[in-house]
Protein backbone atom coordinates (compact mmCIF):
# COMPACT_ATOMS: atom_id res chain seq x y z
CA UNK A 1 0.00 0.00 0.00
CA UNK A 2 1.19 3.50 -0.80
CA UNK A 3 2.63 5.74 1.93
CA UNK A 4 1.27 9.28 1.62
CA UNK A 5 2.91 10.55 4.80
CA UNK A 6 -0.37 10.56 6.72
CA UNK A 7 -2.74 7.88 7.88
CA UNK A 8 -6.40 7.07 8.05
CA UNK A 9 -7.75 7.04 11.60
CA UNK A 10 -10.44 4.50 12.35
CA UNK A 11 -13.86 6.04 12.83
CA UNK A 12 -15.08 6.38 16.39
CA UNK A 13 -18.70 6.14 15.25
CA UNK A 14 -20.75 3.53 17.11
CA UNK A 15 -23.16 1.54 14.98
CA UNK A 16 -25.80 0.52 17.50
CA UNK A 17 -27.34 -1.88 14.98
CA UNK A 18 -24.29 -4.11 15.22
CA UNK A 19 -23.77 -3.91 18.99
CA UNK A 20 -24.66 -6.94 21.10
CA UNK A 21 -26.30 -5.50 24.23
CA UNK A 22 -27.07 -8.87 25.85
CA UNK A 23 -24.73 -8.21 28.78
CA UNK A 24 -26.22 -4.78 29.47
CA UNK A 25 -29.79 -6.10 29.16
CA UNK A 26 -29.02 -8.91 31.63
CA UNK A 27 -27.40 -6.42 34.00
CA UNK A 28 -30.49 -4.21 34.13
CA UNK A 29 -32.61 -7.29 34.81
CA UNK A 30 -30.45 -8.12 37.80
CA UNK A 31 -29.77 -4.52 38.90
CA UNK A 32 -32.69 -2.41 37.60
CA UNK A 33 -31.16 0.74 39.12
CA UNK A 34 -28.54 0.68 36.33
CA UNK A 35 -31.17 2.25 34.10
CA UNK A 36 -31.46 5.28 36.36
CA UNK A 37 -27.84 6.42 35.80
CA UNK A 38 -27.75 10.01 34.48
CA UNK A 39 -24.05 9.95 33.47
CA UNK A 40 -23.27 12.76 35.91
CA UNK A 41 -19.78 11.37 36.51
CA UNK A 42 -19.83 11.74 40.31
CA UNK A 43 -18.66 8.12 40.56
CA UNK A 44 -15.69 8.81 38.26
CA UNK A 45 -14.78 12.01 40.09
CA UNK A 46 -14.63 10.34 43.46
CA UNK A 47 -13.03 7.04 42.42
CA UNK A 48 -9.71 6.43 44.18
CA UNK A 49 -8.47 4.14 41.41
CA UNK A 50 -9.50 6.40 38.53
CA UNK A 51 -6.41 8.64 38.30
CA UNK A 52 -4.08 5.81 37.38
CA UNK A 53 -6.41 3.04 36.21
CA UNK A 54 -9.09 4.85 34.19
CA UNK A 55 -11.85 3.11 36.16
CA UNK A 56 -15.21 4.85 35.83
CA UNK A 57 -18.64 3.37 36.50
CA UNK A 58 -20.13 5.90 34.11
CA UNK A 59 -17.81 4.72 31.34
CA UNK A 60 -18.52 1.10 32.21
CA UNK A 61 -22.26 1.62 31.64
CA UNK A 62 -21.70 3.57 28.43
CA UNK A 63 -19.17 1.01 27.20
CA UNK A 64 -21.64 -1.82 27.78
CA UNK A 65 -24.28 -0.02 25.71
CA UNK A 66 -21.74 0.59 22.92
CA UNK A 67 -20.42 -2.96 22.79
CA UNK A 68 -16.96 -2.08 24.07
CA UNK A 69 -16.52 -5.16 26.25
CA UNK A 70 -12.71 -5.14 26.22
CA UNK A 71 -12.62 -1.64 27.70
CA UNK A 72 -15.33 -2.57 30.22
CA UNK A 73 -13.48 -5.68 31.42
CA UNK A 74 -10.21 -3.74 31.69
CA UNK A 75 -11.89 -1.12 33.88
CA UNK A 76 -13.70 -3.65 36.05
CA UNK A 77 -10.44 -5.45 36.79
CA UNK A 78 -9.06 -2.22 38.33
CA UNK A 79 -11.94 -1.66 40.78
CA UNK A 80 -11.01 -2.04 44.46
CA UNK A 81 -14.66 -2.19 45.60
CA UNK A 82 -14.10 0.60 48.12
CA UNK A 83 -17.68 1.82 47.63
CA UNK A 84 -16.99 5.54 47.47
CA UNK A 85 -18.98 5.79 44.24
CA UNK A 86 -22.01 4.30 45.98
CA UNK A 87 -21.83 7.01 48.63
CA UNK A 88 -21.83 9.90 46.15
CA UNK A 89 -24.30 8.64 43.52
CA UNK A 90 -27.14 11.21 43.38
CA UNK A 91 -29.52 8.55 42.06
CA UNK A 92 -28.73 6.19 44.92
CA UNK A 93 -27.48 3.40 42.65
CA UNK A 94 -25.68 0.65 44.50
CA UNK A 95 -22.67 0.82 42.19
CA UNK A 96 -20.73 -1.69 44.25
CA UNK A 97 -23.47 -4.25 43.72
CA UNK A 98 -23.63 -3.27 40.05
CA UNK A 99 -19.91 -3.92 39.59
CA UNK A 100 -20.00 -7.23 41.44
CA UNK A 101 -22.99 -8.37 39.38
CA UNK A 102 -21.29 -7.37 36.18
CA UNK A 103 -18.19 -9.33 37.08
CA UNK A 104 -20.36 -12.46 37.29
CA UNK A 105 -21.69 -12.05 33.75
CA UNK A 106 -19.95 -13.22 30.58
CA UNK A 107 -20.19 -11.28 27.31
CA UNK A 108 -23.40 -13.03 26.33
CA UNK A 109 -25.03 -12.03 29.60
CA UNK A 110 -24.92 -15.50 31.15
CA UNK A 111 -24.20 -15.78 34.90
CA UNK A 112 -20.93 -17.71 35.09
CA UNK A 113 -19.77 -17.20 38.62
CA UNK B 1 -51.32 25.81 13.93
CA UNK B 2 -53.31 27.94 11.55
CA UNK B 3 -52.37 27.89 7.86
CA UNK B 4 -51.14 31.51 7.79
CA UNK B 5 -48.87 30.82 10.75
CA UNK B 6 -47.29 27.90 8.96
CA UNK B 7 -46.80 30.01 5.85
CA UNK B 8 -45.09 32.71 7.90
CA UNK B 9 -42.69 30.23 9.48
CA UNK B 10 -41.95 28.61 6.12
CA UNK B 11 -41.26 32.05 4.63
CA UNK B 12 -38.34 32.39 7.03
CA UNK B 13 -36.65 29.49 5.28
CA UNK B 14 -36.93 31.01 1.82
CA UNK B 15 -34.27 33.15 0.24
CA UNK B 16 -34.96 36.10 -2.00
CA UNK B 17 -32.91 35.62 -5.15
CA UNK B 18 -33.29 38.24 -7.89
CA UNK B 19 -33.82 36.79 -11.32
CA UNK B 20 -31.33 38.86 -13.28
CA UNK B 21 -28.43 41.37 -13.29
CA UNK B 22 -25.66 39.91 -11.17
CA UNK B 23 -22.07 40.88 -10.52
CA UNK B 24 -20.06 37.64 -10.52
CA UNK B 25 -16.89 36.96 -8.56
CA UNK B 26 -14.85 33.83 -9.21
CA UNK B 27 -13.17 31.43 -6.85
CA UNK B 28 -9.40 31.24 -6.30
CA UNK B 29 -9.14 27.49 -6.66
CA UNK B 30 -12.07 26.17 -8.67
CA UNK B 31 -10.51 26.94 -12.05
CA UNK B 32 -7.64 24.64 -11.17
CA UNK B 33 -9.75 21.87 -9.69
CA UNK B 34 -12.71 21.87 -12.09
CA UNK B 35 -11.71 24.17 -14.93
CA UNK B 36 -14.99 24.35 -16.83
CA UNK B 37 -17.42 24.80 -13.95
CA UNK B 38 -17.28 28.60 -13.78
CA UNK B 39 -17.17 28.92 -17.56
CA UNK B 40 -20.31 26.83 -17.88
CA UNK B 41 -22.08 28.71 -15.11
CA UNK B 42 -21.67 31.83 -17.26
CA UNK B 43 -22.49 29.98 -20.48
CA UNK B 44 -25.67 28.47 -19.04
CA UNK B 45 -26.88 31.68 -17.38
CA UNK B 46 -25.88 34.10 -20.14
CA UNK B 47 -26.07 32.20 -23.43
CA UNK B 48 -28.62 29.50 -22.71
CA UNK B 49 -30.96 31.27 -20.27
CA UNK B 50 -30.34 34.89 -21.32
CA UNK B 51 -29.42 36.35 -17.95
CA UNK B 52 -27.17 39.35 -17.39
CA UNK B 53 -24.11 38.27 -15.41
CA UNK B 54 -21.21 40.72 -15.29
CA UNK B 55 -17.65 39.93 -14.29
CA UNK B 56 -14.52 42.01 -14.35
CA UNK B 57 -10.92 40.94 -14.71
CA UNK B 58 -9.99 43.43 -11.99
CA UNK B 59 -11.46 41.46 -9.10
CA UNK B 60 -9.16 39.53 -6.79
CA UNK B 61 -9.40 36.85 -4.16
CA UNK B 62 -11.84 37.63 -1.35
CA UNK B 63 -9.00 36.67 1.03
CA UNK B 64 -11.28 34.13 2.73
CA UNK B 65 -8.81 31.31 2.19
CA UNK B 66 -6.09 33.24 4.06
CA UNK B 67 -8.55 34.37 6.73
CA UNK B 68 -9.72 30.81 7.41
CA UNK B 69 -6.12 29.59 7.45
CA UNK B 70 -5.31 32.16 10.17
CA UNK B 71 -2.72 33.98 8.07
CA UNK B 72 -4.45 37.38 7.84
CA UNK B 73 -6.77 39.24 10.24
CA UNK B 74 -10.40 39.84 9.35
CA UNK B 75 -9.87 43.57 8.82
CA UNK B 76 -7.54 42.82 5.91
CA UNK B 77 -10.13 40.50 4.39
CA UNK B 78 -12.74 43.22 4.92
CA UNK B 79 -10.72 45.76 2.96
CA UNK B 80 -10.21 43.31 0.10
CA UNK B 81 -13.93 42.57 0.06
CA UNK B 82 -14.71 46.29 0.20
CA UNK B 83 -12.72 46.66 -3.01
CA UNK B 84 -14.86 43.96 -4.67
CA UNK B 85 -17.96 45.88 -3.58
CA UNK B 86 -16.43 49.03 -5.08
CA UNK B 87 -15.94 47.23 -8.41
CA UNK B 88 -19.55 46.09 -8.26
CA UNK B 89 -20.75 49.62 -7.52
CA UNK B 90 -18.64 51.10 -10.32
CA UNK B 91 -20.14 48.54 -12.75
CA UNK B 92 -23.65 49.63 -11.72
CA UNK B 93 -24.82 46.43 -10.04
CA UNK B 94 -26.35 45.88 -6.61
CA UNK B 95 -26.51 42.07 -6.51
CA UNK B 96 -23.38 40.02 -5.97
CA UNK B 97 -23.06 36.33 -6.76
CA UNK B 98 -20.02 34.35 -5.65
CA UNK B 99 -18.65 31.21 -7.20
CA UNK B 100 -17.00 30.05 -3.99
CA UNK B 101 -18.71 28.86 -0.84
CA UNK B 102 -15.99 30.28 1.39
CA UNK B 103 -16.35 33.63 -0.38
CA UNK B 104 -20.08 33.47 0.28
CA UNK B 105 -19.41 32.78 3.96
CA UNK B 106 -16.72 35.45 4.09
CA UNK B 107 -18.89 38.14 2.45
CA UNK B 108 -21.85 37.23 4.65
CA UNK B 109 -19.74 37.31 7.79
CA UNK B 110 -18.32 40.71 6.87
CA UNK B 111 -21.74 42.21 6.10
CA UNK B 112 -23.11 40.84 9.37
CA UNK B 113 -20.09 42.21 11.27
CA UNK B 114 -20.62 45.64 9.73
CA UNK B 115 -24.30 45.49 10.66
CA UNK B 116 -23.33 44.79 14.27
CA UNK B 117 -20.39 47.22 14.35
CA UNK B 118 -21.01 50.19 12.00
CA UNK B 119 -17.86 51.90 13.25
CA UNK B 120 -15.83 49.06 11.75
CA UNK B 121 -17.50 49.57 8.38
CA UNK B 122 -16.58 53.28 8.56
CA UNK B 123 -12.99 52.35 9.33
CA UNK B 124 -12.82 49.95 6.35
CA UNK B 125 -14.31 52.62 4.07
CA UNK B 126 -11.52 54.95 5.16
CA UNK B 127 -8.85 52.28 4.68
CA UNK B 128 -10.14 51.49 1.19
CA UNK B 129 -10.13 55.18 0.26
CA UNK B 130 -6.56 55.59 1.51
CA UNK B 131 -5.42 52.43 -0.27
CA UNK B 132 -6.98 52.88 -3.70
CA UNK B 133 -9.33 55.88 -3.72
CA UNK B 134 -12.46 53.79 -4.14
CA UNK B 135 -15.91 53.96 -2.55
CA UNK B 136 -18.61 51.34 -2.44
CA UNK B 137 -22.24 50.49 -1.79
CA UNK B 138 -23.02 47.28 0.03
CA UNK B 139 -24.80 44.70 -2.14
CA UNK B 140 -28.54 44.62 -1.83
CA UNK B 141 -28.56 40.88 -2.47
CA UNK B 142 -25.81 38.38 -1.87
CA UNK B 143 -26.08 34.89 -3.28
CA UNK B 144 -23.98 31.90 -4.04
CA UNK B 145 -23.96 30.73 -7.66
CA UNK B 146 -25.77 27.55 -6.59
CA UNK B 147 -28.62 29.75 -5.27
CA UNK B 148 -29.00 31.19 -8.74
CA UNK B 149 -28.79 27.76 -10.35
CA UNK B 150 -31.40 26.56 -7.85
CA UNK B 151 -33.66 29.40 -8.92
CA UNK B 152 -33.11 28.53 -12.59
CA UNK B 153 -33.49 24.77 -12.08
CA UNK B 154 -36.96 24.70 -13.64
CA UNK B 155 -35.79 26.47 -16.80
CA UNK B 156 -32.85 24.08 -17.03
CA UNK B 157 -35.22 21.12 -16.62
CA UNK B 158 -37.37 22.46 -19.47
CA UNK B 159 -34.34 22.58 -21.78
CA UNK B 160 -32.85 19.30 -20.52
CA UNK B 161 -31.68 16.79 -23.07
CA UNK B 162 -31.04 14.13 -20.44
CA UNK B 163 -32.66 13.37 -17.13
CA UNK B 164 -31.03 11.85 -14.08
CA UNK B 165 -32.59 8.45 -14.65
CA UNK B 166 -31.07 5.13 -15.53
CA UNK B 167 -31.48 4.45 -19.24
CA UNK B 168 -31.63 0.70 -18.62
CA UNK B 169 -34.18 0.58 -15.82
CA UNK B 170 -35.94 3.96 -15.93
CA UNK B 171 -35.27 4.35 -12.22
CA UNK B 172 -34.12 7.76 -10.92
CA UNK B 173 -30.41 8.00 -10.15
CA UNK B 174 -29.50 7.96 -6.49
CA UNK B 175 -27.92 11.32 -5.72
CA UNK B 176 -25.96 12.21 -2.59
CA UNK B 177 -25.91 15.97 -2.11
CA UNK B 178 -23.22 17.65 -0.06
CA UNK B 179 -23.60 21.33 0.80
CA UNK B 180 -20.47 23.29 1.71
CA UNK B 181 -20.08 24.11 5.42
CA UNK B 182 -19.42 27.82 4.78
CA UNK B 183 -22.79 28.00 3.05
CA UNK B 184 -24.99 26.09 5.43
CA UNK B 185 -23.30 26.22 8.81
CA UNK B 186 -21.91 29.73 9.32
CA UNK B 187 -25.12 31.65 8.60
CA UNK B 188 -27.70 28.94 7.89
CA UNK B 189 -30.55 31.43 7.50
CA UNK B 190 -28.73 33.03 4.55
CA UNK B 191 -29.01 29.85 2.51
CA UNK B 192 -31.99 28.26 0.80
CA UNK B 193 -33.93 26.24 3.37
CA UNK B 194 -31.97 27.41 6.41
CA UNK B 195 -30.37 24.93 8.77
CA UNK B 196 -33.28 22.50 8.92
CA UNK B 197 -34.25 22.19 5.25
CA UNK B 198 -31.20 23.03 3.14
CA UNK B 199 -32.49 22.23 -0.34
CA UNK B 200 -30.24 24.19 -2.66
CA UNK B 201 -28.75 21.02 -4.16
CA UNK B 202 -31.49 18.51 -3.46
CA UNK B 203 -33.90 20.87 -5.26
CA UNK B 204 -31.71 20.76 -8.38
CA UNK B 205 -31.25 16.98 -8.27
CA UNK B 206 -34.97 16.36 -7.90
CA UNK B 207 -35.92 18.91 -10.59
CA UNK B 208 -33.63 17.11 -13.03
CA UNK B 209 -35.07 13.67 -12.30
CA UNK B 210 -32.80 12.26 -9.59
CA UNK B 211 -33.67 10.81 -6.22
CA UNK B 212 -31.91 12.36 -3.24
CA UNK B 213 -30.80 9.83 -0.67
CA UNK B 214 -30.44 10.50 3.01
CA UNK B 215 -27.72 8.86 5.04
CA UNK B 216 -26.39 9.27 8.60
CA UNK B 217 -23.37 11.50 7.87
CA UNK B 218 -25.13 13.62 5.23
CA UNK B 219 -24.26 16.92 6.92
CA UNK B 220 -20.76 15.91 7.98
CA UNK B 221 -17.84 18.00 6.70
CA UNK B 222 -16.16 16.76 3.49
CA UNK B 223 -12.88 16.80 5.39
CA UNK B 224 -11.19 19.79 3.73
CA UNK B 225 -11.57 22.24 6.58
CA UNK B 226 -8.59 24.42 5.57
CA UNK B 227 -6.38 23.85 8.60
CA UNK B 228 -7.07 20.11 8.48
CA UNK B 229 -5.73 19.74 4.97
CA UNK B 230 -3.24 22.56 4.55
CA UNK B 231 -1.25 21.50 7.61
CA UNK B 232 0.25 18.17 6.63
CA UNK B 233 0.30 16.91 10.21
CA UNK B 234 -3.50 17.21 10.21
CA UNK B 235 -4.03 15.71 6.79
CA UNK B 236 -4.93 12.28 8.17
CA UNK B 237 -7.80 13.98 10.01
CA UNK B 238 -9.04 15.41 6.72
CA UNK B 239 -8.88 11.98 5.10
CA UNK B 240 -10.58 10.30 8.08
CA UNK B 241 -13.51 12.74 7.84
CA UNK B 242 -14.03 11.93 4.19
CA UNK B 243 -13.65 8.21 4.89
CA UNK B 244 -16.37 8.47 7.53
CA UNK B 245 -18.75 9.99 4.97
CA UNK B 246 -18.02 7.31 2.39
CA UNK B 247 -18.50 4.51 4.90
CA UNK B 248 -21.83 6.07 5.84
CA UNK B 249 -23.11 6.53 2.26
CA UNK B 250 -21.80 3.21 0.90
CA UNK B 251 -24.79 1.04 1.95
CA UNK B 252 -27.13 3.34 -0.04
CA UNK B 253 -25.26 2.74 -3.34
CA UNK B 254 -25.20 6.33 -4.61
CA UNK B 255 -24.72 6.95 -8.32
CA UNK B 256 -23.18 10.39 -7.89
CA UNK B 257 -22.30 13.08 -5.37
CA UNK B 258 -23.51 16.63 -6.05
CA UNK B 259 -21.64 19.50 -4.40
CA UNK B 260 -21.56 23.30 -4.40
CA UNK B 261 -18.22 24.09 -2.75
CA UNK B 262 -14.75 24.31 -4.32
CA UNK B 263 -13.15 21.97 -1.78
CA UNK B 264 -15.87 19.34 -1.33
CA UNK B 265 -15.93 17.85 -4.84
CA UNK B 266 -12.15 17.92 -4.91
CA UNK B 267 -11.72 15.99 -1.70
CA UNK B 268 -14.69 13.69 -2.21
CA UNK B 269 -13.12 12.87 -5.58
CA UNK B 270 -9.37 12.67 -4.85
CA UNK B 271 -9.59 11.03 -1.45
CA UNK B 272 -11.33 8.06 -3.09
CA UNK B 273 -8.05 7.38 -4.86
CA UNK B 274 -6.08 7.77 -1.60
CA UNK B 275 -8.45 5.50 0.34
CA UNK B 276 -8.24 2.92 -2.45
CA UNK B 277 -4.44 3.00 -2.32
CA UNK B 278 -4.32 2.89 1.49
CA UNK B 279 -7.13 0.48 2.28
CA UNK B 280 -7.75 -1.22 -1.05
CA UNK B 281 -11.39 -0.15 -0.85
CA UNK B 282 -13.54 1.46 -3.53
CA UNK B 283 -17.09 2.75 -3.10
CA UNK B 284 -18.67 2.65 -6.56
CA UNK B 285 -19.81 -0.37 -8.55
CA UNK B 286 -17.34 -2.87 -10.06
CA UNK B 287 -14.25 -1.30 -8.54
CA UNK B 288 -15.00 2.24 -9.73
CA UNK B 289 -15.51 5.23 -7.45
CA UNK B 290 -18.55 7.46 -6.96
CA UNK B 291 -18.31 10.51 -9.26
CA UNK B 292 -18.38 13.82 -7.35
CA UNK B 293 -19.73 16.61 -9.55
CA UNK B 294 -20.19 20.33 -9.19
CA UNK B 295 -23.71 21.65 -9.80
CA UNK B 296 -22.51 23.41 -12.99
CA UNK B 297 -21.12 20.16 -14.34
CA UNK B 298 -24.36 18.35 -13.58
CA UNK B 299 -26.43 21.13 -15.14
CA UNK B 300 -24.14 20.98 -18.20
CA UNK B 301 -24.61 17.22 -18.52
CA UNK B 302 -28.38 17.57 -18.21
CA UNK B 303 -28.34 20.27 -20.90
CA UNK B 304 -26.38 18.03 -23.26
CA UNK B 305 -22.94 19.67 -23.10
CA UNK B 306 -20.09 17.38 -24.17
CA UNK B 307 -18.62 15.81 -20.99
CA UNK B 308 -15.07 16.54 -22.10
CA UNK B 309 -15.92 20.21 -22.70
CA UNK B 310 -17.19 20.24 -19.10
CA UNK B 311 -13.76 19.09 -17.95
CA UNK B 312 -14.96 15.80 -16.50
CA UNK B 313 -11.73 14.12 -17.59
CA UNK B 314 -9.83 15.95 -14.83
CA UNK B 315 -11.81 14.12 -12.16
CA UNK B 316 -9.94 11.28 -10.49
CA UNK B 317 -13.01 9.03 -10.43
CA UNK B 318 -14.01 7.79 -13.87
CA UNK B 319 -17.16 9.47 -15.13
CA UNK B 320 -17.88 7.03 -17.97
CA UNK B 321 -19.99 4.53 -15.96
CA UNK B 322 -22.32 7.41 -14.97
CA UNK B 323 -22.52 8.69 -18.55
CA UNK B 324 -23.36 5.17 -19.75
CA UNK B 325 -25.99 4.81 -17.07
CA UNK B 326 -27.76 8.04 -18.09
CA UNK B 327 -27.17 7.33 -21.78
CA UNK B 328 -25.10 10.43 -22.52
CA UNK B 329 -23.18 10.25 -25.80
CA UNK B 330 -19.44 10.82 -25.59
CA UNK B 331 -16.39 10.06 -27.66
CA UNK B 332 -13.68 8.26 -25.64
CA UNK B 333 -11.07 9.31 -28.20
CA UNK B 334 -11.70 12.98 -27.37
CA UNK B 335 -11.15 12.56 -23.63
CA UNK B 336 -7.61 13.87 -23.53
CA UNK B 337 -7.70 16.36 -26.36
CA UNK B 338 -6.63 19.83 -25.33
CA UNK B 339 -6.84 23.16 -27.11
CA UNK B 340 -7.24 22.92 -30.89
CA UNK B 341 -7.92 19.18 -30.63
CA UNK B 342 -4.27 18.59 -29.77
CA UNK B 343 -3.59 15.40 -27.81
CA UNK B 344 -2.43 16.05 -24.27
CA UNK B 345 -0.78 13.38 -22.15
CA UNK B 346 -2.89 10.58 -20.75
CA UNK B 347 -2.50 10.25 -16.97
CA UNK B 348 -1.23 7.05 -15.35
CA UNK B 349 -3.87 4.72 -13.95
CA UNK B 350 -4.19 3.99 -10.22
CA UNK B 351 -3.47 0.46 -9.06
CA UNK B 352 -6.69 -0.12 -7.09
CA UNK B 353 -9.33 2.42 -8.11
CA UNK B 354 -10.66 1.41 -11.51
CA UNK B 355 -10.49 4.19 -14.10
CA UNK B 356 -11.17 4.32 -17.83
Describe the protein in words.
The complex is a heterodimer of chains A (113) and B (356). With 113 residues, chain A is an all-alpha fold. Chain A has one domain: Orthogonal Bundle (Fumarate Reductase Iron-sulfur Protein, Chain B, domain 2), CATH 1.10.1060. Chain A has seven helices and no strands. The longest helix of chain A is centred in the N-terminal third of the chain and has 9 residues. Chain A is globular. Chain B has 356 residues and is an alpha/beta fold. In chain B, helix 3 packs across helix 15. Helices cover 44% and strands 8% of the residues of chain B. Chain B has 16 helices and eight strands. Classes of the chains: A mainly alpha (113), B alpha/beta (356). At the A-B interface, loops of A face helix 13 and helix 14 of B.
Which characteristics define this entry?
heterodimer; A: 113 residues; mainly alpha; Fumarate Reductase Iron-sulfur Protein, Chain B, domain 2; 7 helices; B: 356 residues; alpha/beta; Glutathione S-transferase Yfyf (Class Pi), Chain A, domain 2; Rossmann fold; four-stranded parallel β-sheet; 8 strands; 44% helix; 8% strand; globular
Please tell me the CATH architecture of the largest domain in chain B by its name. Answer: 3-Layer(aba) Sandwich
CATH fourth-tier homologous superfamily of chain A: Alpha-helical ferredoxin
Number of separate structural domains of chain A: 1
Distance between the termini of chain A: 47 Å
Number of strands of chain A: 0
CATH topology of the largest domain in chain B: Rossmann fold
Q: How would you characterize the largest beta sheet of chain B?
A: 4 strands, parallel
Q: What's the number of extended β-strand segments of chain B?
A: 8
The level-1 CATH class of the largest domain in chain B: Alpha Beta
Q: How does the major sheet of chain A shape up?
A: none
Helix count of chain B, per DSSP?
Answer: 16
- Nearest-angstrom radius of gyration of chain A? 16 Å
CATH fold label of chain A: Fumarate Reductase Iron-sulfur Protein, Chain B, domain 2
Strand percentage of chain A lies at under 5%
